[in-house]
Design goal:
238 residues; mainly beta; 2 helices; 57% strand
């Protein structure tokens, strides 16, 4: 923000519907740290970039992390976003990531979550993609007391494709909630939602898939699938 204000201010908190999310508003007001990645036009980053958030504190903490990722035209990037905890102290993480992908760009986003049983993670990601853009998100949740993943995907041009995939392994009394919202505003766009989970002990899981198709978004294709394996009688999937 200090070094590149003209670039950050152009994109930071510019997705209108984000203001409807209370936790996003809290994050916007209180954000204290985060990653900023800018990929210029025609630049293809061949080596994946890993973003790591590690919690190691002796007190119960409330963390507000804000990430901003910008891809210009004809650019490409692969991101591996990891949330980890070093100890078993209680924590509440409210993380918000904004991704802006211009025309003909390509982005792969992997989210790896491996926290402790006393942690609560609210992870919200907004994707704004322009024409002829390919987006693939892969969420892998291996451990965590309570995890809430929100994905908002907005098609702002024609011939876009988005694949939102998720895999979660929960046990004990852990809870995982995955929500995906895809807004088809333009024609000839495709979206795929595929989430699979394995729930053990008294773990619970939830999946909410939403697809909005605008009146002019003809030739829209949208797919949703959620499959779960319950290893005990107490495990539950909604």
């Amino acid at each position: 923000i200090k070094e590149f204000p003209e670039l950050v201010n152009k994109y930071f908190a510019k997705i209108e519907e984000a203001s409807e999310n209370s936790f996003t508003n809290i994050n916007t007001a209180m954000a204290m740290d985060g990653f900023f990645i800018y990929v210029p036009e025609n630049v293809k980053v061949e080596i994946p970039i890993q973003l790591v958030n590690i919690i190691h504190h002796d007190k119960n903490i409330f963390i507000q992390t804000r990430n901003l990722i910008i891809l210009e035209k004809n650019s490409k990037i692969t991101l591996i976003h990891c949330d980890d905890s070093y100890n078993h102290q209680k924590s509440l993480i409210n993380s918000v990531t904004e991704v802006y992908a211009a025309e003909n760009s390509n982005i792969e986003h992997y989210k790896m979550q491996n926290l402790n049983n006393d942690s609560t993670l609210i992870n919200t990601v907004y994707y704004s993609v322009d024409a002829n853009t390919n987006l693939t998100t892969n969420g892998i949740s291996l451990n965590g007391g309570k995890i809430k993943n929100n994905q908002y995907i907005y098609f702002n041009g024609t011939n876009c494709q988005a694949n939102a995939y998720g895999l979660y392994l929960m046990d004990r009394k852990q809870h995982i909630d995955n929500m995906v919202y895809v807004k088809h505003n333009h024609p000839y766009c495709v979206s795929n939602e595929l989430f699979k989970g394995i729930l053990d002990d008294s773990a619970t899981g939830a999946f909410n898939g939403h697809v909005y198709v605008g009146k002019d978004a003809y030739k829209t294709n949208a797919f949703q699938s959620n499959k779960n394996i319950l290893l005990t009688d107490k495990a539950k999937a909604n």
